[in-house]
Write a structure and sequence with these properties.
The chain is of the alpha/beta class. It is 36% helix and 19% strand. It has two domains: 2-46 and 60-81 and 223-301 and 433-485, FAD/NAD(P)-binding domain (3-Layer(bba) Sandwich); 85-221 and 303-421, Polyamine Oxidase, Chain A, domain 2, CATH 3.90.660. It has helices at 14-25, 63-72, 77-80, 106-116, 120-140, 150-156, 161-165, 172-179, 183-190, 209-217, 227-239, 281-288, 292-300, 332-340, 387-398, 414-421, 438-441, 465-481; strands at 2-4, 7-10, 30-33, 45-48, 51-54, 83-85, 90-93, 99-102, 220-222, 243-245, 250-255, 260-265, 269-271, 274-277, 306-315, 324-327, 350-354, 367-376, 406-412, 452-454. The longest helix has 21 residues, at 120-140. Bound molecules: flavin-adenine dinucleotide (FAD). Flavin-adenine dinucleotide binds next to helix 1, helix 12, strand 15, helix 16 and helix 18.
């Protein structure tokens, strides 16, 4: 059977859905093909015994970017879901039992830091000044268009000084050392490298801008869990006429020698002059549209990290924890050394999201929904039975002991991420941001044939919900501007 549409989107992750809404709102006939039975990609949740866990994103930043898309569809984010700005935003814990709580207001956080480590309040505020500049320059340069060539970026720069302002020549770790005299806060700043699956010792200091984004624009939660955000995206897309086909794996992208002509499913061919791939670039160039040169270029970059997540249904309430918590390892260098060497870190930093602290609907009465996550290399093999108890043991050494109160501990590892979303090796964010030129080496948004595009975490500007949403904006603009592809 052969059908036709204006635009075929391969993958119903956030990148695919945000692109679909933009293009359908502009009058295009869009069909999204998703291999899984549900939409949302990594933005997903899981229920068990009355507990709900966001198993992908648990922290929402810059919800205004999603609101921009919803407005094109004639609605508002606030009308679709209840988004709440969290205060406190994060609790951080170190192995020496010290702890600091970050607040929603930079001044309140600076005061907390000053009490935690004298002098660090001013250091934090100085960091934010620098980080805001990085964000503002990035917003009008990196995030304002595609990166088809370094020239396209230079054209968006107001002066050569912009290159210095984004602090891309230093690593994040070096910036952390220059900013904070307290080693614990150096570790805190280095953590932002992990937001793009990267290594603080290798990623550019540009990533410090995430600290300003969290401080100024807030850390957000969607009532009912982030699964409710995914449901809203699906609803809004359908309202503007997007057609979703779930359980529909695209097997091949078809083309002439010049341009794409459509996609091939197991038992169906769909003709489309524009194909947008929301899946991973390696999957695209290896399986869907084999292309040696592009594939080699993706393979030359480091994969981003993967992770081990453990979903724990916990009885009772745990004192002193917040919604978002981080228990730092004793030695960050060793932790990332293990990751670089391809091993699960022996002493990992543990992120713990307990959204039932904010939203009681996420756990049965007098219980907590613990989502624990550690960074691992992509491609690593784990022991799905052993790693749950192991991580609870590790957590008990650094912080709360959940072992006697855990009703279950379910493990999600790199292999599941890889097979479910076709993310090679289970890399969460496509290629990493390690190295000065990583931003220029990300797989390009324009494919090797006319009408072929990439969107989402695997392409420009990177992974995480805000960047993926920006990616959808940039690719939609490219498509709508290109007259020949209409
Ligand atoms: C454990 C974890 C924690 C995270 N935490 C956060 C967080 O707190 N905050 C944050 O902002 N981000 C977080 N992220 C990152 C964020 O989830 C991703 O960057 C983002 O969701 C990626 O969206 P995407 O659309 O680019 O790709 P994906 O979500 O990977 O979507 C791609 C879709 O394409 C489909 N697909 C692939 N190949 C095919 C094919 N051949 N045919 C049909 N369909 C196909 C896949 O099944 C998938 O549904 C986290 C991710 C994980 C895994």
């Amino acid at each position: 059977m052969t059908v036709t549409c204006d635009i075929a989107i391969v993958g119903g992750g956030v990148g695919g859905m945000m692109t679909a809404i933009r293009l359908a709102a502009a009058g295009r006939q869009v069909v999204v093909f998703e291999r899984n039975g549900e939409l949302g990609g990594k933005l997903t949740s899981r229920q068990r015994d009355g507990f709900t866990f966001d198993t992908g994103p648990s922290l929402l930043t810059l919800p205004s970017l999603i609101d921009d898309v919803f407005q094109l569809a004639g609605t508002r984010l606030d009308d679709e879901v209840n988004v709440e700005r969290l205060d406190p935003s994060f609790r951080y814990f170190w192995p020496d039992a010290s702890t600091v709580t970050f607040r929603d207001q930079p001044i309140a956080t600076a005061e907390a830091l000053e009490a935690f480590s004298p002098g660090s309040g001013a250091e934090y505020l100085a960091l934010l000044t620098r980080a805001r500049t990085i964000w503002n320059v990035s917003d009008r340069t990196f995030f304002a268009g595609d990166m088809s060539s370094p020239l396209s970026l230079l054209r968006r720069m107001q002066s050569p000084r912009d290159l210095l302002r984004i602090d891309a020549l230093r690593t994040l770790q070096l910036r952390a050392r220059k900013t904070f005299s307290d080693a614990r806060l150096q570790q805190w700043l280095g953590r932002y490298a992990t937001y793009s699956g990267s290594d603080p010792a290798l990623a550019p200091a540009t990533l410090a801008c995430i600290a300003a984004v969290e401080a100024d624009f807030g850390s957000w939660y969607v009532r009912g869990g982030l699964g409710a955000l995914r449901d809203a995206m699906v609803r809004v897309a359908q309202r503007v006429g997007v057609e979703f086909r779930v359980n529909s794996e695209v097997m091949k992208i078809e083309s002439t020698s010049r341009r794409v002509t459509g996609v091939q499913l197991a038992d169906e061919r769909v003709m489309a002059p524009v194909v947008v791939v929301n899946g991973d670039a390696e999957h695209l160039y290896r399986d869907l549209f084999p292309h040696g040169k592009r594939l080699r270029s993706v393979e030359r970059s480091d994969r981003s990290t993967s992770g081990i997540a453990v979903l724990v249904g916990v009885e009772g309430r745990t004192p002193l924890i917040g919604h978002h918590n981080v228990w730092f390892s004793r030695d960050y260098r060793r932790e990332f050394g293990d990751i670089r060497a391809g091993r699960v870190p022996t002493e990992p930093t543990i992120y713990g999201c307990v959204s039932s602290v904010t939203d009681e609907s996420q756990a049965p009465a007098n219980c907590e929904n613990w989502f624990l996550l550690i960074n691992t290399p992509a491609d690593v093999t784990i022991n799905a039975h052993g790693h749950g108890p192991w991580l609870l043991d590790r957590l008990a050494r650094l912080g709360p002991d959940l072992r006697s109160r855990a009703r279950f501990a379910e493990v999600i590892g790199p292999h599941e991420i890889a097979t479910r979303y076709r993310s090679p090796g289970g890399a969460i964010y496509g290629t990493s941001s390690n190295g000065r030129s990583a931003a220029f080496r990300r797989p390009a948004m324009r494919g090797p044939r006319k009408g072929l595009y990439l969107v989402g975490g695997a392409t420009h500007p990177g992974g995480g919900l805000p960047l993926v949403t920006i990616s959808a904006r940039i690719v939609s603009e490219l498509i709508l501007r290109s007259r020949r592809e209409r």
